[in-house]
């Protein structure tokens, strides 16, 4: 059967119903890659790809909210992306501001909590201000956590957390023996978000590019060749469905897991 680029709404609805029947990932991270190539393939400037990519952001965010995902983290700008040509960085900052202004109503109307991780102090004031405003405004909402990773790097995050922990030890507020994974995790930018279950990366690259390094310890990865501006609700749902068909073993054997399921089911009855 021919499958066009744009999914029919019935297809999306049917897929949504199907994924809702099985346990959903609580927290999904997306490495939204391929905007530049999408534009270059069409002979357009790269910024057009970023612009088109923001339509995917809107569509995927809506879809994640509708199916009941608790937390969605979008890698929008990495610590390393500052080294791109100045015009591209400037265009990305303009787009970010535009996004924060245009999506305000949608975020508030749907009770979304907007969050940001990364070295946001580095962002220009014209981005930081609407970002802080919307974070504050949406902080009392109780719906999906939408986290934008901006000027974000996983290594940078771990180093910063280590520094904070070391300072507490130095001040006598924390004993070295008391540092465990839980305590360390409380010093990360993602503190308070559910465990990362699924990472999706578009554009055919199969690498993590400094995204949620600590948090991805046991996440499932779904890689797709689709370029981000073309990744819309239907494909997002297919990625979730792939996740649902995996067996997450967390170091155990398959048999142990099956036994756990049996005793869990007995316990529940
Ligand atoms: C991802 O698309 C967006 C950002 C990194 C800001 P790219 O701009 O990396 O697109 P490609 O990888 O060059 O195609
Ligand atoms: C990762 O994409 C960062 C974002 C999607 C924001 P990049 O395009 O920067 O990653 P590399 O350079 O291919 O690893
Ligand atoms: Mg890229």
Structure write-up:
The chain has 269 residues and is an alpha/beta fold. The chain has one domain (3-268): Undecaprenyl pyrophosphate synthetase (3-Layer(aba) Sandwich), CATH 3.40.1180.10. The chain has ten helices and six strands, in the order αβααβααβαβααββαα. The protein has helices spanning 9-20, 35-41, 46-67, 86-102, 104-109, 125-137, 154-170, 181-185, 233-244, 254-268; strands at residues 27-31, 71-78, 113-117, 145-152, 198-201, 220-223. A six-stranded parallel β-sheet has the order 3-4-2-1-5-6, with helices on both faces. Strand 3 (113-117), helix 6 and strand 4 form a beta-alpha-beta unit. Helix 1 packs parallel to helix 9. The longest helix has 22 residues, at 46-67. The N and C termini lie far apart (43 Å). The protein binds 3-methylbut-3-enyl trihydrogen diphosphate (IPE) (2 copies) and magnesium ion.
SSE layout and pairings?
Blueprint: H1 9-20, E1 27-31, H2 35-41, H3 46-67, E2 71-78, H4 86-102, H5 104-109, E3 113-117, H6 125-137, E4 145-152, H7 154-170, H8 181-185, E5 198-201, E6 220-223, H9 233-244, H10 254-268
Parallel strand pairs: 1-2, 1-5, 2-4, 3-4, 5-6
One 3-methylbut-3-enyl trihydrogen diphosphate binds at residues 32-37, 77, 81, 92, 203.
